[in-house]
Known about the structure:
Radius of gyration: 21 Å
Mean pLDDT: 95
CATH class of the largest domain: Alpha Beta
CATH superfamily of the largest domain: Enolpyruvate transferase domain
Bound molecules: uridine-diphosphate-2(N-acetylglucosaminyl) butyric acid
CATH topology of the largest domain: UDP-n-acetylglucosamine1-carboxyvinyl-transferase, Chain
Strand order of the largest sheet: 21-22-1-23
Largest sheet: 4 strands, mixed
Strand content: 25-35%
Structural class: alpha+beta
Shape: globular
Amino acid sequence: MKEKLRIIGGNRLEGEVMVSGGKNAAVAIIPAALLADSPSVIENVPDINDVHVLIEMLRYLGAEVEFNDNVLRIDPRQVDKYDPPYELASRMRASYYFAPVLLGIFKRAEVPLPGGCDLGARPIDQTIKGMETLGATVDTKGGVLVTSAEELTGGDIFLEMPSVGATVNSMLTAVSASGATSIHNAAKEPHIVDLANFLSAMGASVKGAGTDVIRIRGGRHLHGTNYTVVPDQIETGTLMIAAAATGGDVVITGAIPTHMEALSAKLLEMGVHITTEDDRIRVRSNQNFRPVNVKTQGYPGFPTDLQQPLTALLTVANGTSIVTETIFESRFRYLDELRKMGANARVIETTAIITGVEGLVGSRVSATDLRASAALVIAALMADGVTEISGIGHLMRGYERFDQKLRSLGAMIEHLRLED
Length: 420
Ligand code: EPU
């Protein structure tokens, strides 16, 4: 079956919308739940395809899992396998978070190398270095991360860049290692802090998450816990940009405004009105956007995951914007699709030069990755006429009921399921 989104542009978004739980937090917390000796109940888990793949992996490994109304119950007591299958692991990036978890439980793990969005090379050398520093042997020949360790011992891990994946994997190894581990140059994203909070709730000693150095005292007995996943920073940002793009007036609820400061600063610079109160962010715009320059960085800098959605908005700004992508080498491919809609965009190495046009026109376009699909939805909401977006499997992987949420705000958006 082919799935498409059909969007008629030009409708102003208005009303209130609730943000879902964080994808990148949930996908780290879910494997971590296996480290406990009793069940965990995790609330606010987004109902997205990446979570469904993780649930299949949990069941394959022997866990008992129930998932209803965004509440995930994981009973890890019968887990008896350490080798999730390729067909599941290759479908998403976070599958390799099972490697340190299963290593901690079984002293051995065999996890096929991860998939996820194709954003250019996504090496895992820092994950390997972190695990080796704590005493594991790691081999990736044949496309499978095979790791084993008779004993894991705490140590100092120095990451060469603040990688989210390497920070998660180092944390998940360190909780099973005896003694103290320090992860230097750690990633500081909200999902790192959320994983640390979850591990602490399970009985682990984790300090400093959200700063450059995370300190973990490992080897403690971990128990199941009740936990609520942090709101999704990137979904919040995508909704903020969508509201601005349509000249709308939208209140996003259940959000954490401090996580949004880098984006809010850029939107304010563009002339968008933003007000915040507790967990609510109100976004209003008159569709008169000043151009801005943006450079992606790790948190608290401007997130690479919002580079694509914001660039869609810049295609209609009054002038030229310069967008520099410093995290991933191929995160500009969606610009080919935006050009079909009339955008004026040039790419020179890691920089995109976007010269605003009067307006975009509806077209047939194809999403190349998760945040590219969000960018195309935003472009389509602004465009004159009908846009059909194919390749929306990417969108389903990472945004919960995104089309429904936009429809509730007044967007003309239909999810088409067509026979081949
Ligand atoms: N890097 C290395 N070696 C490593 C690890 C990373 O060279 O061992 C480099 C990467 O090539 C990249 C940079 O370091 O240039 C940052 O990569 P990072 O490891 O931080 O990214 P990731 O863990 O693969 C996560 C998110 C991505 C998000 C990035 C950056 C998850 C499951 N994925 O990926 O999310 O873009 O951090 O914030 O948490 C998305 O949600 O659309 C998405 C792609």
